[in-house]
Automatic annotation (TrEMBL), chains A, B:
Residues 43-62 are annotated as: Disordered. Keywords: Nucleus, Transcription, Transcription regulation. One of its GO terms (cellular component) is nucleus. CDD domains: bHLH_AtORG2_like. This is Transcription factor bHLH120.
DNA sequence: ATCCCCACGTGTCGAA
DNA sequence: TTCGACACGTGGGGAT
């Protein structure tokens, strides 16, 4: 490259392609390995600070010179643009954990892995916040005293009806403030042909836990196993659906 | 561009720079607006499927022709590479939510916003999993079954120790399959100077819920309120930490 | 000595 | 017209 005419207007680093480029290149490759934290770049483009071709009075062949200047300016602008891109690539790469960009070093590989990484991040956030929401909801409608399984947290009702020694154990856990009054629970239970044998209420960490044991009233304990199971299942549905309709 | 010599070897789309480029350009800009889901690209480069210059026997000026062919091949390869980059950019962009890439449309802006977005994602994950870990730790050292405050829902432990009519109610919920055997629970309880008054086990949604009521053995019910509270608190820690060490 | 990748300078198109 | 952005073709350097 012949140096063109060394115009006064041009500034900064004039292009020295053969040598300088090699250096830039090398530098660039190095910067890929280091962790770069350049997020707060001045965003809007401010290339081309030149004054606007200075109201060209003058000879006719200034036209030629002007054209060359424009080209040089353009060239520099493009160079700066490329540099910015390189910096952006680097900062992008510095964000992606090393196990993603395996052995590969090319920019396209990096971007590809970045895409995968972003997907992974999104999935992870989705998973985490799903779990969180589930727990939150569970603690709001609040029912199951026991945490069920960690993977699939059930949207379960706050009422469990289970067989017990005497007959049926109904466990109701409810919020302390806005919760279900005990009287309501009891009235529902008695309306289901249950005679309540014992009833205890405990406050567990701000939750009320009403535990009642009842005998099933019809047939006076003549509960064959099958019918018992059926009744129980039936009762579960009825009781919980009734009580849950606050 | 004069068409060079139309060599037989060249294939596919020969470059038609003036027109074709415009079309490509347009097409590319369009593809930026749509949502592209191209993550499963064949990753390793497979440009340049040409046969290897076919063992060049022949005239001396085949050298010239060969050189030109190489250039054309190179040109095509580069074009493909650029296309791939464009696709990657597009798929990157399609992952970043719209509020990030404000009005800007340039590739560097997109990458810049991508960087910010990744940072945001990482922060969010950090926050979420921090909360989660905190809750987990909290639930390991302490022992609440019920979620206390609605914002921080506990990944709660399986043991609660609460006052009850008779004395102390210990509730242990455990997994059905890999869980804590009841005998283990009972042995821990008896080792804590608790005489078990009643014990019931129910299965709730695949979880075993062991509910035991015990009297505190020393002082035989001479539990002043304060000492009772202290004992209870003490018991909570000891029992849950013991039992939880499965 | 082939392939791959990168940076370069340039032409050009669309929008201020 | 000017300016920003993109695709292009090309040279060169570094791998395998």
């Amino acid at each position: 490259m012949f140096p063109l005419d060394p115009t006064d207007e041009l500034f900064q680093f004039t292009s020295l392609p053969s040598q300088q480029n090699a250096i830039q290149h090398q530098d660039n490759k190095l910067s890929f390995t280091t962790c770069i934290d350049t997020a707060h770049l001045p965003r809007k483009r401010n290339y081309s600070r030149q004054r606007k071709s200075s109201a060209f009075v003058g000879d006719k062949d200034d036209y030629r010179s002007d054209k060359k200047k424009r080209k040089m300016i353009h060239r520099d602008v493009e160079r700066q643009r490329r540099q910015e891109m390189a910096v952006l690539y680097a900062s992008l790469r510095s964000l992606v954990p090393n196990e993603y960009l395996k052995v590969t070093r090319s920019v396209s590989d990096h971007i590809y892995e970045t895409v995968n990484y972003i997907r992974h991040l999104q999935d992870k956030i989705q998973e985490l916040s799903d779990k969180r929401d589930c727990l939150k909801k569970l603690s709001n409608t609040s029912n199951n005293v026991a945490p069920d399984c960690p993977t699939s947290c059930l949207e379960c009702s706050c009422v469990t009806v289970e067989p017990c020694w005497a007959g049926v154990e109904v466990l109701v856990s409810t919020g302390f403030t806005q919760g279900l009054p005990l009287s309501r629970v009891l009235s529902v239970l008695t309306s289901e042909d249950l005679s309540i044998v014992s009833c205890s209420s405990t406050k567990v960490n701000g939750m009320l836990l009403h535990s009642t044991e009842s005998e099933v009233n019809d047939g006076a304990g003549a509960s064959m196993y099958l019918s018992y199971r059926r009744k129980l299942a039936d009762l579960k549905v009825k009781t919980s659906s009734k009580i849950l309709k606050w």
